[in-house]
Design brief:
Blueprint (H helix, E strand, L loop, with lengths): L1 H15 L8 E3 L5 H5 L5 E11 L8 E5 L4 E5 L2 E12 L3 H15 L23 E3 L9 H8 L6 E10 L30 H14 L3
Parallel strand pairs: 1-2
Antiparallel strand pairs: 2-5, 3-4, 5-7, 6-7
Helix pairs in contact: 1-3
């Protein structure tokens, strides 16, 4: 679900900010100094650094789920708020400020994420998806302390808070899918194999076929 929210924010920033993926990267990494040193293009970074229940939207009422022969009583989904720190990274400070203003203008346009912008599982959310940008009092903790923990110079940015519903009955239905990497190349320690009599015959036949007739 969080990955789908990342993709949704990326879509909003690129489309409403009128930015090209060929010129600007949208990242969701922890903005450490080591990460910043590896950047090769102007980048808008949306780092999700806090996730907690939105108790103001807590609903303790039961919903009735009716089947063909029975009905189940189920608690309403919990509501969780995810807080992003949005920053811009470029070689020139004026480029950073322009990028950040574009991102701010794109995200602040509405108070909920519209269905046409929602990606993946966000389309199945049972409630509207509230989004608040740069609001006073929504920041959790001190951002100055946050930057000191990251061991990176503090820079201009704004917070973006999105609230999602978590249905505990449905959250575990889909199998986990992880990104996999496949290494291609010569191994430093290739596995050893003992040749059988059949293997030797195959090799001998291949050598004969290679010889000119």
């Amino acid at each position: 679900m969080i990955h789908d929210l990342d993709k949704t924010l990326e879509k909003i920033i690129l489309e409403r900010g009128r930015l090209s993926k060929n010129e600007v990267d949208i990242a969701f990494d922890l903005p450490s100094s080591d990460w910043a040193s590896r950047l090769s293009r102007p980048t808008i970074n949306c780092w999700c650094y806090d996730l907690r229940e939105n108790t103001k939207l807590r609903n303790m009422e039961f919903n009735t789920i009716r089947g063909e022969r029975s009905a189940q009583m189920r608690l309403a989904p919990l509501r969780f708020s995810l807080t992003y720190l949005v920053t811009a990274w470029a070689r020139k400070i004026e480029d950073e400020h322009q990028l950040l203003w574009r991102a701010l203008s794109a995200l602040v346009r509405s108070t909920v994420i519209e269905s046409e912008m929602a990606q993946g599982a966000l389309r199945d959310q049972p409630y509207d998806i509230p989004i608040s940008v740069g609001q006073i009092g929504e920041t959790t903790g001190n951002l100055t302390d946050l930057w000191s923990v990251l061991e990176s110079e503090m820079r201009l940015g704004f917070t973006c808070v999105v609230t999602l519903a978590l249905d505990t009955e449905r959250a575990l239905e889909a199998p986990m899918v992880f990104e996999k990497e496949i290494g291609v190349g010569q191994a430093q320690q290739p596995p050893k194999r003992v040749l059988t009599a059949l293997d030797r015959k195959i090799i001998q036949k291949a050598d004969k076929d290679k010889k000119p007739r």
